[in-house]
Amino acid sequence: MENTVGRLCAEKKQQLGIDEAAFTAAIDGTQVSHLRQPQTERMGTQVSHLRNARQQAPDDSHRYASVPLATTAGETLATPAGETPAYQGGFDVVIGNPPYVQLQSMGAMSDVYARCDFETYNKSADLYCLFTERGYSLLKPGGLQSFIMSNKWMLVAYGKELRKFMAKTDMQQIINFGDVQFFDEATIYVCIFVTRRSEERSKEVLALSLNQKTYHGDFLHEVPEQLASYPLETYGEKEWIIPPKAHFNILQKMQTGVALKDMPLSINYGIKTGYNDAFFIDGAIKDRLVAEDPRSAELIKPLLRGRDIQAWRPEWDDLYLIATLPALQLDIDNYSAIIAKTTRSHSTPLKGGERRRAINK
Prior knowledge:
Shape: elongated
Mean pLDDT: 77
């Protein structure tokens, strides 16, 4: 990663036409006033930090000997020895809200990032994908990373690389807030994740998916109460979908045993009337037909269409089917009210065998 950062810095300097000498300063008093803002402020802050560290720990001055400070346009890089005497590499925690910038809109810089060996790079992706990988790389072993950022990567094609990368980390929590809005100044659909840098991965991850209908704004109470454990293996490079826990358990049960397509079954079309306006009736027409001819009740059955069947329950629309099924081998002339109803549904009355064919179709 150090080689990658170094190469990226050099390419940025070359692209922006920046003199190398203008971005290197010795600790022992080199002035940085010739640098452009905001680089000047950043440079001065770092130099002051290093000088103060020397003064406070004179016995450790060898740690800081000839430590150069280099800055690039928009970035400040310091050697590890310049951070603090106790610095061992890596952070305990990395948190943030990374920038949302389409890589395609960055022009030549997108090509620079493409050569930086980011596992999460995709030319159609967003800058937050690269920030996520970079943030994770800055962790010490056992360190935690948590970002609030766009949730698009969980489902869209360009998020495949990030999903694959995150699946290799020790994911602790992932919360998808769906269409819930957290930022007043922009319409952004976000997620929050927490992952840990570790060679060992947990077997389960706490996950939750919310939306405006299920989330009422009380983050500290609603989220902990609704988080549920899911197998970590559920989340790989494919789309990260977080169903309600009850639904997930049912789907898991459905995936056991023999698949329906592998069973010795013949699956055919349902009922085809040939003319739904004649054979689909509502409750009021059903009552009228039965009143005219009580035998009509033998052929009128409650009807559910595909659109009337919701998750786990039907929503009946008070519809009935005049079930003159051919397999019943009916003598339709015995059902006068139904004959009258079906023939009235046609623009011209049907007669004789034509009528029987229409009703039994």
